[in-house]
Amino acid sequence: MKNIIIAITSVAFLAGCQSMGPKETGGTLIGAVGGGLIGSQIGGGTGQLVGVGLGTLGGAALGNYIGKNMDDSDKGK
Predict the structure, then answer these.
(1) Who contacts 37 (Cβ-Cβ below 8 Å, separation ≥6)?
(2) Residue pair 15/25 in contact by the 8 Å Cβ criterion
(3) How far apart are CA 33 and CA 5, in angstroms?
């Protein structure tokens, strides 16, 4: 659980470095949490940590992409 919190916090700080819309930010955070939880179900020991890390990063990227598209759609782009 400690590793999941560290990964989510890292993603949140990295996301704060960009100029993001509200749905993009929310999508990134929700994706990171969901991906980390799904990744934690894979493997055991070191493999589980890798699963959490990859799940967090993958979920954050996917959530960011979806949120950005939603923000762009709201702006009429």
Answers:
(1) 4, 55
(2) yes
(3) 9
